Amino acid sequence: MDEVSILLTLYSVVAGLGISRLVQGVSDMIRSRADLRFDWVHTGWVCIIFLSHIVTWFALMRFAKGAHWTVFNAVLALMVPIVLYVVSDLVVPRFDGDDHFDLGQYFDTNARWLHGLMLAAVACAFVVQIAVERQTDLAGGGALRLACALVLAVGFMSTSRRTHQFVTVAMLLVLVSGSALVSIRLMQ
After folding, report:
1. Interhelix angle for 40-60 vs 3-31, to 10°?
2. How far is 102 from 88, CA to CA, in rounded Å?
3. β-strand 36-37 against 101-102: which pairing, if any?
4. Is 155:164 a contact under the CB 8 Å cutoff?
5. Where are the domains of the chain?
6. Which one is predicted more confidently, 145 or 21?
7. Fewest CB within 10 angstroms: 56, 92, 110, 174, which?
C-alpha cells in the first residue's frame, strides 16, 4: 500500500464520518418535520457540504502519481475532511424537544461559522495543492477554489439574508462546476 492509498483511506474515514453526520441530521429533520420550519438556504448548505465532501475526496485522487508527500502534507490534506466534518455537524441542528424549530433562523445564527470554516477548508485545500504539487494551479481547480474563497469571504463578512441567499446559489454553482471538472479529469 503506497502513501496515497493510506492517505485516501484515512481521508475516506473522516469524510465518511462527516457524510454520516449529515445523513443522520437529515434523517432527524425528516422525523421532526412537523415541528420544523424548513428553509431553502439551510437545505442548500446541507447540499453544499455534502458535495464538498465528495468533490474534495475525488480531487485528492489527482495526487496519485508524481506527488510530493510528507507527514506535514498529509496532515494538511486531512485537515480538509476534519474541517468539513465540523461543518457537517454544525449545519444540522440537534433537537432538544422544542415545539417548533426554524431552520432559517438556525442557519442565520451559524452562518458566520459555516462560511468561515468552509473558507478554512478551501484554504487548506489550496495549501495542500501547492505543497504536494509544488506549484500553483490557477486554471481549473485552482480557479474554482479561488471562486469559492471569494464567495465564502463575502458570506463571512455579511449578516444580510439576501447576501447569504446569493452565496448559497453561487456555492452550489461552483461546486457543480467543480464536480464536472473533477469528473472530466478522472476520465482522462
Report:
1. 160
2. 18
3. parallel
4. yes
5. 3-187
6. 21
7. 110
Q: What are the pLDDT digits (tens) for 101-128?
A: 899 999 999 999 999 999 999 999 888 8
CA distances from 85 to 69, 160, 168 (A): 23, 26, 19
Instruction: Kindly report, residue by residue over 156-180, the tens digit of the pLDDT.
Output: 999 999 999 999 999 999 988 888 8
Q: Given a cut of 70, is residue 24 above it in pLDDT?
A: yes
The total of other beta-carbon atoms located within 10 Å of residue 136's CB is 10
Coil, helix or strand at residue 134: coil
Q: How far apart are CA 49 and CA 41, in angstroms?
A: 12
Residue for cell digits 465540523? 86
CB 47 within 8 A of CB 114: no
3 state SS of 162: helix
Which of 150, 38, 170 has its CA nearest to residue 105? Answer: 38
CB 163 within 8 A of CB 155: yes
